[in-house]
TrEMBL record:
GO terms for molecular function: hydrolase activity. It comes from Cladosporium halotolerans. Residues 160-404 form the Alpha/beta hydrolase fold-3 domain. The keyword Hydrolase applies. Belongs to the 'GDXG' lipolytic enzyme family. The active site is at 241. The keyword Hydrolase applies. This is Alpha/beta hydrolase fold-3 domain-containing protein. Keywords: Hydrolase. InterPro entries: AB_hydrolase_3, AB_hydrolase_fold, GDXG_lipolytic_enzyme, Lipase_GDXG_HIS_AS, Lipase_GDXG_put_SER_AS. SUPFAM superfamilies: alpha/beta-Hydrolases.
Amino acid sequence: MDGGLIKLLAPQIPSLANTTLWHTLGMTQTSNHWDLRTALTVQVLRSIMSGNGHEPSPVGKVQASTLKDPGVKGKTWVAKATIPAPRENQEGIRHAVFKAIDELSNGKPEYTHPNLVDTEVEWTGFRPNAGNNESMPNISEEEKYKRLMAEPTRTSDTTILYFHGGAYYLCDPSTHRNLTSRLAKESGARVCSVRYRLAPQAAFPSQLLDALMVYLSLLYPPPGSLHEPIPASKIVLAGDSAGGNLVFALLQFLLHLHRTAPTDSSTPPLLRFHGAQVPAPLPAAASAAAAWLDISRALPSITHNEKYDYLPPPNHSDATARYPPDAIWPSDPPRGDLFCTLDLLDHPLVSPVLADSWAGAPPLFLNTGEEMLTDEIKFLAARAAQQGVAVEFEQYQAMPHCFAMLLPGLPTSVRCVRAWGEFCRKVGEGGGMEGWVGETKGTWVEARTGREEQREVAELSDGLGMEEVRRLVGEAKGKRVAGFEGEAKTLPKAAL
């Protein structure tokens, strides 16, 4: 055990001992559902997320601790590449995104108008013959990509475009390699993980611009790219947590583009990209694990499911002031949320749970534990199904946020990634949304036994309607604005 881990765990020894005792005696709320390893893991994560009882660390320090690349070892191929931004005529993509933000807004929101930037990606594949701690060979990125593509386990032409989680200000693809490698194995596909810009340094819509640019670059590779052109019928959007938010924000943007395009509805709308007018088709499918779909964190499960989760509870009246100042926070100009201006908390490209329509969307796959974000995930799944979209939904009893990544050895985690991979494989084999042969279905998976029950996806919202969701998010936004104004009464309007 290294010194850093000892330093992290030492203050938690008393609480871990207490957790062990009460869990073993069956005296906790989760004893009937969790094994001891899960109970201890969640306890450690709760302590970290709450600051170990100390003052919270500055955002920059927390972010830096998650950006250390541990290197690539084990049964994973990783080939790194840079997706170049257009050197001229960036306005096609930028204008389309800014126009969609304005058209989908209730008022006139103020937000940054960032440029496109070069964006790094990691091509990931399963490497079956490597040892668990074996490093990749010392060869060029081009050769790594060729070997990844030549693996006999890559049995599908599908490409999974993956957006990592981490609350938009933590992590990068390196922290998700184990998960994306497993997803590649179960799907037989290759995964392209995007190193999008992180908040708070880059505010919304920087991340949406990055996602759109990489998506278009898969379709229309710039010169020097490792990959050949990939048809939209072979691209599945995927992500977890904040990355799941980005999946559905990108999909909602593309749907809006199609709805409002002046051309014939049978022809994809055009965007100017690297000097050419190119079609912007919908992807074959979209999928997410534990998607964070309501940035305001306003729906009932945020408090009702605390006992199964490690995420910190929301504090709508003091959501950002608790972070000590450092080089990256507060932002300049100041704003009331790490990710976006408070103006945009209830915008459907920021909080996709508020999107009016998913009609016309490709097949969707969503899974969740019994976590704090469950209500927003169930609501989006139900609304899409009610509007005629094919939806596969899975819920895992008593499981915490992103359990399949954090607890990969659990039988429920193995099942979760396998089902996700099978969905991606099925989409690719069907030739995309036009050839989809699946059906809308919902599955509840029991924690201890793995027993499955079928659920009606269109009825998952548990009585929550769009009017009630809008009311709850609006109330949370109002508290956030009031709290922020109380901290900084002299800040300019743009900070809100």
